[in-house]
Amino acid sequence: MFIINRLSKLNKKSFIFKKLSTKPTQEHTQELVKVDKLTNDDKGIVIISLNRPGSKNAINKHMIDQLLNTFRQFYNDNDTKAVIFRSLVNGIFCAGADLKERLKLPSSEVGKRVSEIRNLANVIENVPVPVIAAVDGAALGGGFELALSCDFIVCASNSIFGLVETRLGIIPGAGGTQRLARAVGGSLAKELVYTARLFNAQQALQYGAVNRVSEQNDEGTSAYKCALQIAREILPNGPLAVKMAKKAISHGQQVDINNGCAIEEFCYSQIIPTKDRIEGLLAFVEKRKPNYTGS
């Protein structure tokens, strides 16, 4: 009952977002994160693209700020049905934290910066709608951790993954020790983190770290196209139902089966009084496509 009471209070106001100070430097005015809202038949799909080519999308302070501000908007957005998180830099999803920036930080600031990336990963994970990571290249360290914070990962055949922090005398700090273990199992996660081992797309599929692997194309966008196809399959479905399904699965897998089923029951109860539920039933009986309004 405690879990259900907590879940019933869970809404966009429940998440605590740390205030990240920003100073108006030249790079901070640059667009390190590009947002594209698709239109026409793809209306409802939003593309979030990393775009820091000179540094292989290394995560610095300004990228954290821009990503956080971008993903926070989905907590108050009823128009978005699915999000694709990708890179515009050929061959790279994200190389991890900006180590050059990290080296300049005083020891007293390092923990704060790591905490900011961890907070970002949590914000991504708790976006109400599905977030698909499209990895067309290398996802290393913090970059892999951000991908793991999405609902699932699809990748191209040339992709490389790894939590390589122990090579640097540190550990994954943006939830990687937790999310990788939940994705592939504790024993394998320990082996991969202890050894800082890199692994390829087929191994990632075998381990359970990614959902799909597609052969890379000449444009280097194979994973993006795969993610777009999945997002298009999500679009026709009831938006409230998809949100509640995400909540039920995400929260339910953190607890035992009995409490998980109680969470599912709670989420189902949120759908019963909606117009969308009636519309779905009527559309089925009348043999037509449903017209969901998200209400």
UniProtKB/TrEMBL annotation:
Pfam families assigned: ECH_1
Taxonomic superkingdom: Eukaryota
GO molecular function: enoyl-CoA hydratase activity
Record SUPFAM superfamilies: ClpP/crotonase (SSF52096)
GO CC entries: mitochondrion
Alphabetical UniProt keywords: Lyase
InterPro entries cross-referenced by the UniProt entry: ClpP/crotonase-like_dom_sf (IPR029045), Enoyl-CoA_hyd/isom_CS (IPR018376), Enoyl-CoA_hydra/iso (IPR001753), Enoyl-CoA_hydra_C (IPR014748)
Biological process (GO), any one: fatty acid beta-oxidation
Family label: Belongs to the enoyl-CoA hydratase/isomerase family.
PANTHER family, alphabetized: ENOYL-COA HYDRATASE-RELATED, SD19268P
Name assigned to this protein: Enoyl-CoA hydratase
Organism: Aphis glycines
